[in-house]
Fold this sequence. Notes:
The structure holds three protein chains of three kinds.
Chain A: H1 22-34, E1 38-42, H2 46-50, E2 56-57, E3 63-65, H3 71-84, E4 91-97, H4 98-103, H5 106-115, E5 119-125, H6 160-165, E6 171-176, H7 180-191, E7 196-202, H8 206-209, H9 216-225, E8 232-235, E9 239-242, H10 251-255, H11 266-286
Parallel strand pairs in A: 1-3, 1-4, 4-5, 5-7, 6-7
Antiparallel strand pairs in A: 6-8, 8-9
Helix pairs in contact in A: 1-7, 3-5
Chain B: E1 2-6, H1 7-17, E2 22-25, H2 32-44, E3 50-53, H3 57-68, E4 74-78, H4 80-95, E5 101-106, H5 120-123, E6 131-134, H6 138-155, E7 159-164, E8 172-176, H7 180-186, E9 203-204, H8 210-242, E10 249-252, E11 259-263, H9 267-280, E12 285-290, E13 292-294, H10 298-304, E14 310-315, H11 325-334, E15 342-347, H12 357-369, E16 378-379
Parallel strand pairs in B: 2-3, 2-4, 4-5, 5-7, 6-7, 11-12, 11-14, 14-15, 15-16
Antiparallel strand pairs in B: 1-8, 6-13, 10-12
Helix pairs in contact in B: 1-2, 1-6, 3-4, 6-8, 9-12, 10-11
Chain C: E1 15-16, E2 18-19, E3 31-35, H1 41-45, H2 52-60, H3 64-72, H4 78-84, H5 88-92, H6 95-98, H7 104-114, E4 132-136, H8 140-151, E5 155-160, H9 168-172, H10 180-192, E6 196-199, H11 209-212, E7 217-220, E8 226-227, E9 240-242, H12 243-251, E10 261-265, H13 269-280, E11 284-289, H14 300-309, E12 312-315, E13 317-324, E14 330-342, E15 348-362, E16 364-367, E17 371-372, E18 383-384, E19 387-388, E20 401-403, H15 414-432, E21 445-446, E22 451-452, H16 454-463, E23 492-493, H17 496-499, E24 507-509, H18 512-520, H19 533-537, E25 543-546, E26 551-554, H20 564-568, E27 574-578
Parallel strand pairs in C: 4-5, 4-7, 5-6, 7-20, 9-16, 10-11, 10-16, 11-12
Antiparallel strand pairs in C: 3-27, 8-17, 13-14, 14-15, 18-19, 21-22, 23-24, 25-26
Amino acid sequence: MVLTEERPNLLRPGHAACAGCGLATGMKLVLQAMGPRTIAVIVPSCEGAIGGVYPYTAYGVPTIHSAFEIAAPTAAGIANGLKVQGITDIQVLAFAGDGGTFDIGLQALSGVAKNNDDIIYVCLDNEGYMNTGIQVSSSTPSFAWTGTTPKGNPRRKKNIMEIMAAHYNPYSATATIGFPRDLQQKITKAKGIRGTKFIHMLVPCPTGWRTPSDISPELSVLAVETNIFPLYEVEDGKRYTINHQPRRLPVREYLSRQGRFRHLKEEEIEQIQRDADEEWKKLRYRAGLSG
Amino acid sequence: MKEFMTGNHAIAHAVKLCRTPLIAAYPITPQTPIYEKLSEWEASGQLKGIMMRTESEHSAMASCIAASLTGVRTFTASSSQGIALMHEMLHFASGCRVPVVMANVNRLLAAPWGFWADQLDSLSQRDTGWIQFYCENGQEALDSVIQAYRIAEQVYLPAMVSIEAFFVSHFMEVVDLPEQEQVDRFLPPMDLPHKFDMDKPGFLVPVVPSELYRKYKHMAQVSMDSVKGLALQVDQEFRNEFGRGYGIVEPLMVEDAEVVVVTAGSITGTARVAIKELRERGYRIGLLKVRLFRPFPGEAIREALRGRKRIAVIDRNFSLGGGGIFCQELRAALVHSPDRPLVFSYIAGIGGTDVRPEMIERVCLDVMERTEPMDTPIWIMEEGS
Amino acid sequence: MKMDFRHSSELVIPISYGSTEVIETGRWGFQKPETVLMTAPCQEACPAGNPIPQFLYLAAEGRYDEALRALLRENPFPGVCGRVCFHPCEARCHRARYDESVSICAMERYVFDATSDRSVDIRPHRNHHSKQVAVVGSGPAGLSCAYFLGLLGHQVTVFEARTEPGGVMRWGIPEYRLPKSVLKREVRRIVNLGIEIKTGVKVGGDLSFDQLMDFDAVFLSPGAGSSLPLKIDGEALKAVWRGKELLERINSGGRIRLGREVIVIGGGNTAMDVARSALRLGSRVTVAYRRSRDEMPAIQEEIREAEEEGVRFEFLIQPVRVSLLKNGRLAVKFQRMKLGKPDQSKRPKPIPVEGGFVKLEADALVEAVGEAVEWSWIPQRLMSRGLIDVGPSLLTAQDKVFAGGDAIDQPRTVVTAIASGKKAAISIDLYLRGLSSDDFLSRIEVGNQGSLSMEAYIAGIEQGRWPEVKDVVPYERINTLYFEPSGRIRERKLSRDKAVKGFSEVNRGFSPNQAHASASRCFTCGTCNYCSNCYFFCPEGVISLDPLLQSRAVDLEHCKGCGTCARACPRGVVEMREVS
């Protein structure tokens, strides 16, 4: 049940996201689950662009627009600053994109995860540098078109969840806007855990993915149901839980709706399917499920 | 209470005495003993607070800035490559107007590699908006850290206290440790008007229009300029409380000097000896120590050098294509001086090479023989090299 | 730029405190979402116009009292329909195209059962023009008409010839399908509305037809209570029964012995009821039907359950003669049949196979091949071919006399009878207000198959708020991506052995968990069920929903018109419309 009075919208309307932006939806859902006793960190990215120009802000909680690669240590600094003052009822949330997480911010995130500083880090993954106009990042999936991979990305998407799991941090989870209840439950769960919590959130980008403005949630669901982006949690780097049993639709159903994959050859689609199948098998194995 | 300790440990003691509850740091020679000492005290509980053992200097500074915005006092220590890596965040810190205090142990910048004293690392950061102090010894470093907090927290600008690698950082000297109550009296709790406010959620560091950017930079300059007077005042109050002080510049026997040697940092100590020797031999040589580099105390320097004809600036740093950085700044400060003294630029001690008293004597004798200064600095090296 | 620092903190660094809400990002878009409530196909298929998506939504939320109230707005017999309806709704269920249809009928029953321990009453509307209406016959049509007239605030008197009200629900349908206690509760609710039911009053005997004319309006719903004869030799033998009479005897609690073997003639629901009742009376039962299984008019579940319970079937035979054997048993001669071209009923016509005969023996034979209206008390001019002749508003040839139920030309099912009772109630109300039904019935249609909405009628006639007629949701408008595939949930049943031992209700209904899962399977086509997809997925956060106030609002000043809400609505309730 949604009672708007009880759970205020903390990403205010009037923000500057593109129409149909999955990232805005994601931030809205996360902030709502976080609640007003939150300090948020954003970095130069779509989040910065969305957040409004002085003197206006879309963020309903105290927020700092930090530098690109330091979402994690900024959040950690705030968290520890509060801790030394004995303030325990404020949660610190870091938002960074895939560029700020998989690429330029990876080291800093790793450092914070190693220290297990008490923050919730949400990677808003739209699979490329979208704010600067669609360039490849290490999160861009195989064969996808971007402005800097005009013939398609030759490399696979980095597995950030495994990187995080290797830090043995208490909680990491994947989430996506198409499963808002799952997403908000994960945020709520993360709030109850002390230490570095990492949420890898897939957020479809109509502009960068070359899709209509009305299908972001649908793509998000398809990403899960095709096993391109399974929903799962990793606790203490070792306990894996799969949160949603996918319908295992063919990856083609996901790919075919996006302009960035329009040029794909049959064998490339098959390759993506094989990769998805293989990753799913690995994930099931880690979750203690056979086959 | 007097104790025998290194410059690094003197700084660590200052941080503890200031009750700094949040420290973020990353190891780098020759700063590491500061980090280790504070970690030791954090672990033993002697230091009440959190040591953030970050994965880089860049993140250490990011954490200090962020923590500072929650309203707590913060500290980091770095050196050389570390401060260079921090560069982006140094600008960010002053832009956020946070009173972070950093100790920098001056070490040369690679390449080639080396670990030795050289002030280029911190001087390269002169445009980042930090208050900068250069200290002669461990005692001054300790006292300057305490003063730095007092000043920084009044003007909301970050402050850096530099000592030179090994010469100060690792040399054991007698240091007079202030009493905790004295420091508590001298340094009130930090209060930051722009810290995060849960009751009035604001968006910090927004994108601003050009005019507003300009406005805030101008406001920052006004604050920075006020530091010249404030630092003097704070130093005076410090002297009242602790019985010692430094000023922002320190003139020594300049009144009748034909030549005034200008130094910063540890070379000053050597210069004191060299000048005494030359005075005994009949040369009228004076010394001006520059302690505050940012903001640059132009007026105080002009005042100290009024009527002097020849100035020899010795820089343990070098801006390729420019020259000694203290000299550049000094020349710029004196350009409007009615006396227009001749300012000669000497480079000494680069890469941690030893600057012995006789080298300073050579500078003094050399400058008296010259008729006019050159753009290019004069490198002073050991005999035969 | 003029500096205006409203906060002292801004004397140090710029801090944005203003809300972006002042920026009208709604101007970016050229289309805006609109809520377009539509009719679900199940609802259209339900003759009574049951608000199926609404009641299933409420049931899925566990709000059973409200679910029952929603049903009671359109149908006075959820407990009965939830047990005996042939549920045409389920055949049209959009979910059937995705995986399997929703168990709508079973859910209707569950809603009734789950609220049976408390009184969920529905109040009559105040009516300043309250009139007196007589209803003849207390079957589903008569009671439905009385109920709705009562809701509309009229004074209704129901005349029932038998000792208890209910008609086919009381005297026709066996206890194992419809327990008397269920009917009693439904009737009590109707009586509580202020309806007077006079039992043991036979119109044409105790009361003349003309005396009915003292009322302001009359509704005739005498039903079709007498089984048609086969018109074959030997029909008058003692061991040859008529289906309706037999069921009535059983439902009166009479002790009946049919013998070891019984043959039942017919393929409709009466035949199934008779066959399964006979089984419970200890007989072995064979159903003889002149067409094949596919053409049997009985409800599929009834046939399947009869089969499961052990009723045998003989198809494509038709009795031609019954004779008494010396041992007292019956010999029944059957003509073999084959299927020909479709007849008027659109089913293949059975044609005799030349020289093909079969002879079966039995202790009793029950004829269940159709029922007729007993109309001796009704003026001839109201009748046509044994049925009461009515116009589109159910008005008969006589002013202020309306008719419905099995006595008029319409399918003989409980739900169609209820539907005609509702329609008659509306027609009568309009008549009593001096209005023409032609002007109003089309405004309260549910879909395009004749079902009417009482809720819409009351809103219109009482408050002048005539709702827009809603289109039926096409399947393509349902976004099935948001539904996890799931199988239909089946009700619990008595085991065969237990079932045939007596007349206990066979169908035991859903468990609470089953009911929740079952209701949750509903797509609620065309009806907002506050699934919150639009609310969650809106990137602007401009949609607000309040399920308690049943409100859904969009802040158009900030809606960029991306269309996500329309696309993400699983039930096709939101539509993007261009703005100028």
